Amino acid sequence: MSHICTIIWQKEFNKSLNKVNCFQYFKRKLQLCILISPENSLGRKYFKSEDAIRNEQKRQLGISSCVIHPYSVFRTWYTVYLIYLYLSVLITKPLEAAFFKRRFYKEIQYYKEYSLAVDVLSWIDIAINFFTGYVTQKRSTVILNPIRIARKYVFGPYFICDVLSSIPRSAFYYRVTTLKVYQIYGVLAIFSQFKLIRLVTLIVCINRTADYFHIMSKGVLFLFSSLIVSLTIIHWMACLQYLVPRVTRTYFGEYNYTDLTSWTDLPHIQNAKLSSLYITCFFKSSAYILGMHLELFKLKRVEDYLVTIFIYIVGKILLAFIWIILAVTILRSRTLEIKFFEIIGQLEAYLKRKNVPINISDRLLQYYHSAYGEKYFREEIIGNSLSSTLRNEINLHVCKSLIASISLFSKLSSDEVSKVVEYLRPEIFLPRDTIIQHGENGEAMYFVSSGTVAVYTRSGKEICHLQEGSYFGEISLIMKGQKRTATVIAIETTHVYRLNEKDFKRCLLRNVNIVNKMFRHAERRLNENLEIEELYRKTMYRRDTLFNKTSLHKKMSRIVINIIIILLIC
After folding, report:
1. For a FRET experiment, which of 84, 128, 367, 426 has its CA 20 to 30 Å from that of 281?
2. What's the rounded Cα separation, in Å, for the pair 556 and 404?
3. What is the pLDDT of residue 153?
4. HEC assignment per residue over 2-38
């Protein structure tokens, strides 16, 4: 039965754009930008197929053509833009509220225009938030209803803070300074601090951007986000050092030129440049964070004491936060090692309780170190969660060097090699471990991945050493009724791959060329073993004969000597 595909692919949609005029082309392109995009990796977590994405696009168009999908192309790049916007706002808002006076605006050219532009962009962001859908975390559904979007934003924590902190403070500097305007400056300076709540949104935007661009290093991303949070808070507290005295004395109180008790009244502070003033406040807040007392800036006013206490408390929380970040980062990077040593600790306790001999305990611990490399992981669970295709690709990659070093595999096709690799089972043998024993029934053959093994005849004569790329145990599998013809013992820690007899018959015994090659190789090995064994027997027979003759001669000599001694005595 023929299949009729109902999915509209992106290429077909792009072809349809060629048949419209410029206005419709721009309109459709804009509409395509705000629809859910199949290229968005975040959207793939909720919509796992092209058909599901297409149905979501239809649902979005059915609700409203003006709503921006949270997994659209526009929203993706707008999130990247928000990182710049929020960083600018979080830096400039407290800086402007605390330090900027008329002379500072004159020192920094076009800063008033820049500040006004940032506020305008903030208002545009407020407007866009009314048209951007959101995802409910509990049900994992995307809300695209404009009324629900507006209700969530207005009654949430961000709307009122965005509005109050986005009032353009720099625009009032174009007016004549009066007492009312100074009070407005004070109110706006306080309102501008509400933008600090967007620090959370900034971190969310950074994480979403990292997911979209497939930045996999979560540890580095976590450290980077934590660094931004820490520096932003320290910057905010540095600005708070000068902001609070300025608000209480200048904006909401009559400045008394005879009462110069505040540290902000010092001559070198009053006449300082913006950069010097900020560095002084940064140094002062850093000292209070660490709990240091500064004789240079004596506290005399109530607001100075309150700011110092507040910064000290926040600083202690920040330091604890930094230590937690470092601890979490170290633990994350060493998770596998920690799990491994937990298992080793349990194993040592078990061996101690069972009174296992020291030599066996040492060998068991050595096996764990060789098997896991001091990083514990559940290989079976990971392997079972993969598809057969992925599992075969991983096995081929792991056995890549083994396949290249074994001449036997060069006669196999890629499909046959994949089939062999699928049946291979890794095993580890410690020094002096017996892998196969002479005279036993053969149930598997082995491929040496790393390490060295020694081959011995039945009588214990060493034949040879086998290293990486060698294989053994095939003789008893090829020749019917043939038992193991040699003993193989590991000289060092050896990693091998085991191929069971039934799997050997499935994937290798059907290939005539391989069977013939292995048969010839097995016959040659068997003959070599017999020759070495026969030679060893002859050597041992001669040695035994010579030893017997020597022993008889010694006995006769002793008898003659004893007879002579007896005769002399008599």
Report:
1. 84
2. 65
3. 92
4. CCCCCCCCHHHHHHHHHHCCHHHHHHHHHHHHHCECC
> 468: buried, middle or exposed (CB in 10 Å: 19+, 13-18, 0-12)?
middle
Alpha carbons within 13 angstroms on the beta-carbon side of residue 494 total: 28
Q: Among candidates 262, 195, 242, 248, which has minimal Cα distance to 99? A: 242
CA distance between the termini of the chain: 121
Region 231-249: mean pLDDT is 85
At 7 the pLDDT is 44
List the beta bridge partners of residue 136: 141
Helix spans in 447-511 (H): 475-478, 501-507
* pLDDT beyond 60 at 429: yes
Helix axis angle for 218-246 and 73-99, nearest 10°, is: 30
Quote the DSSP letter at residue 112: H
Q: Distance between CA atoms of 374 and 367, rounded to whole angstroms?
A: 11
Using DSSP's 3-state secondary structure scheme, residue 167 falls into coil
Under a CB-based contact definition with an 8 Å cutoff, are residues 370 and 428 in contact?
A: yes
Total residue length of the chain: 570
What φ, ψ does residue 566 adopt, rounded to 5°? -65, -45
- d(C-alpha 98, C-alpha 92), whole Å: 10
Q: Which fold has domain 386-532?
A: Jelly Rolls (2.60.120)
Q: Which residues pair with 495 in a beta bridge?
A: 428, 450
Side chain identity, residue 440: E
- Distance between CA 285 and CA 236 in Å, rounded? 10
Burial class (CB in 10 A: 0-12, 13-18, 19+), 368: middle
Cβ proximity of 426 and 499 under 8 Å:
no
With 60 as the cut, is the pLDDT of residue 391 above it? yes
**Phi, psi (deg, nearest 5) at residue 466:** -115, 135
518 and 459 Cβ atoms separated by less than 8 Å: no
Residue 323 in this model has a pLDDT that exceeds 80: yes
**Long-range contacts made by residues 341-346, C-beta under 8 angstroms, separation at least 24?**
341/374, 342/376, 343/368, 343/376, 344/368
Q: Give the separation between CA 66 and CA 62, rounded to whole angstroms.
A: 11
Structure tokens at 176: 């004549």
Rounded to the nearest integer, the mean pLDDT of the chain is 78
Question: Has this prediction a pTM greater than 0.85?
Answer: no
Amino acid 284 reads K
Which tokens in the block code for residue 4? 């009729």
Instruction: Decide if 368 contacts 344 (C-beta within 8 A).
Output: yes
Q: How far apart are CA 220 and CA 197, in angstroms?
A: 24
* Integer Cα distance of 497 and 448 in angstroms: 7
- Comparing CA positions, the residue from 88, 86, 77, 84 lying closest to residue 34 is 77
Mean pLDDT across 89-94: 90
How far apart CA 319 and CA 325 sit, in angstroms, is: 10
DSSP secondary-structure letter at 130?
Answer: T
pLDDT at 255 (0 to 100)? 52
Distance from chain centroid for Cα 570: 99
